[in-house]
Amino acid sequence: MSSLVHGSALSGAPSRVLVVDDERPLAQMLDTYLTGAGYAVTQAHTGLDAVALARELDPDVIVLDLGLPGLDGVEVCRQVRTFSDCYVLMLTARDDEMSRVVGLSVGADDYITKPFSARELVARVQAVLRRPRVGGPAQAVAQEAPPRVFGDLAVDAAGRHVTVKGEPVELTRTEFDLIDVLSARPKYAFSRRQLIDEVWDTAWIGDEHVVDVHIGHIRRKLGDDPVTPRYIETVRGVGYRMGRG
Predict the structure, then answer these.
(1) What is d(CA 67, CA 30) in angstroms, rounded to the nearest whole number?
(2) Angle at the Cα of 238 from the Cα atoms of 232 and 239, rounded to 5 degrees
(3) Residues contacting residue 152 through CB under 8 Å, at least 6 positions apart
(4) Rounded CA separation 104/98 (Å)
(5) Scanning 58, 69, 178, 238, which has its CA 20 to 30 A from the CA of 195?
(6) Residues in domain Response regulatory (predicted)?
(7) What is the pLDDT of residues 210-236, one digit of tens each?
(8) DSSP 112
């Protein structure tokens, strides 16, 4: 484990990034590029160390390899999500589609497939960190608005809270951000790219079908039938929009 470049909690302090990869040369390369981009970087090379450091350091972003020995990246993400809502960017093998899907289902925000350039990864980290945090100006405006209701579904933008028939639905940060964007303009059909621009960032690059995976998880959690959905409709040839519930 490398020595810590620790950002303080003071305003203007560098964002903290935890790089988790058992390939030490790759971890060091990412450390070098991210440090050069102004981030405070820590490395972990095992899943157990990753969970412990995530709890200790409260990073803003975790760059997480899924192919870790022992405690793999999926389980690391699952455990981290029990105490942190930091952004999680997964590193996966190009042909490992199932791991990507499972990783997103347990709370990862995005993924990047190997091989990739260090510049691309830095751009991804920069993109997620530009997303608005709870308590910013957009949140202040949302606090003035009542929950948005679609049949049995209610989306409370101010409290970042979703219920179906009065029962709370546990969504990841990215899942909530997607349903927040869709429900704010319920008659509008969003393309995948528009949703990425709204939720990830206009600078985001990668496979736009990551949106489909997250929408699938949201539908499952809402109890929505993907064939005849009530809450999130598929607009053929376009993307998605909110249904009437």
Answers:
(1) 16
(2) 30
(3) 164, 165, 245
(4) 10
(5) 58
(6) 16-129
(7) 899 889 989 999 999 878 889 999 998
(8) E
Beta carbons of 19 and 63 less than 8 angstroms apart: yes
Paired sense of beta strands 148-150 and 153-156, if any: antiparallel
Q: How far lies 177's CA from each of 88, 90, 199, in Å? A: 15, 19, 6
Q: How far apart are the first and last CA of the chain?
A: 50
Distance CA 55, CA 124 (A): 23
Residue type, 31: D
pTM listed for this prediction: 0.65
**Tokens, residue 37:** 């981009």
pLDDT at 245 over 60: yes
Query: Of 121, 40, 110, which is closest to residue 77 (Cα–Cα)?
Result: 110
Rounded CA gap, 84 and 89, in Å?
14
Q: Which two tokens stand for residue 141?
A: 């405006």
Distance CA 66, CA 55 (A): 19
Cβ-based neighbour number of residue 100 at 10 Å: 21
